[in-house]
Design brief:
Protein name: dTMP kinase
Pfam families: Thymidylate_kin
Number of helices: 9
InterPro entries: P-loop_NTPase, Thymidylate_kin-like_dom, Thymidylate_kin_CS, Thymidylate_kinase
Structural class: alpha/beta
Family: Belongs to the thymidylate kinase family.
Bound molecules: thymidine-5'-phosphate
Largest sheet: 5 strands, parallel
Order of helices and strands: EHEHHHEHHEHHEH
Shape: globular
Mean pLDDT: 95
EC number: 2.7.4.9
Low-confidence stretches: none
């Protein structure tokens, strides 16, 4: 049995550069010598029937209550969880663009927190817990300068500010379990990529050496 792969999540506000960084990370891991087996995931996964409903909601083509859309985002992770576990157990490292932390941060930030923070955490309890959460921070001015900002439902300055606050709370709450690594994503793509790769290689090595069981949220 090979040692399991590491589970790494990239989180952050909209337009923090996660998607670019994830693709650079995947290429650098798979082209290293020897190559690290790696699979990239992203949430929401808009390709499934649940993901299609989420996509209509985000593009404002469909409306839904805050509770209902929150549960759909979580279901979208649960439907992916068996394959995710299998991939990790096969020894493949998984790098993932957004996860349950975005789920809590965005819903709890909406409408003055009508869906409470604890309620928001509930549906994701039991999902595989990442070995590392990389939190990319971005300033408002840089965020708003990046392409396509404002095209989807949550891309307003006011909401992004509240989301930032909930992410800070999530990070503080996780401190005892497995600290997040904060990465300043206002810097150049290359500088950010270097920090991310270093942190991922470190956790990869630890997981391959210790082969710890996959923890749960
Ligand atoms: P994306 O731009 O990374 O595809 O994410 C789409 C939006 O969905 C983004 O504004 C964050 C939000 N989101 C949630 O509200 N809940 C979730 O569980 C996830 C994964 C994303």
């Amino acid at each position: 049995m090979p040692a399991r792969g590491a589970f790494v999540v990239l989180e952050g506000l909209d337009r923090c550069g996660k998607t670019t960084q994830l693709s650079l990370l995947r290429s650098s891991l798979s082209s290293s010598s020897p190559p690290t087996p790696v699979k990239a995931l992203n949430f929401p996964d808009r390709t499934t029937p649940i993901g299609t409903m989420i996509n209509s909601y985000l593009k404002t083509a469909a409306d839904m209550s805050d509770n209902a859309i929150h549960l759909l985002f979580s279901s979208n992770r649960w439907e992916a969880a068996p394959a995710l576990l299998e991939t990790l157990r096969e020894g493949t490292t998984v790098v993932c663009d957004r996860y349950a932390f975005s789920g809590v941060a965005f819903t709890a930030a909406k409408n003055n927190g009508t869906c409470g923070y604890d309620w928001c955490k509930g549906p994701d309890v039991g999902l595989p817990r990442p070995d590392l959460v990389l939190f990319l921070t971005v300033s408002e001015s840089v965020q708003e300068k990046r392409g396509d900002y404002g095209g989807e439902r949550y891309e307003t300055r006011e909401l992004q500010r509240s989301v930032r606050g909930v992410f800070d709370r999530l990070r503080a709450d996780d401190e005892g379990e497995r600290p997040w690594k904060v990465v300043d994503a206002d810097r150049s793509v290359e500088e950010v990529a270097r920090d991310i790769e270093e942190a991922v290689r470190e956790v990869e090595e630890r997981v391959r050496g210790e082969n710890p069981p996959i923890a749960k949220l």
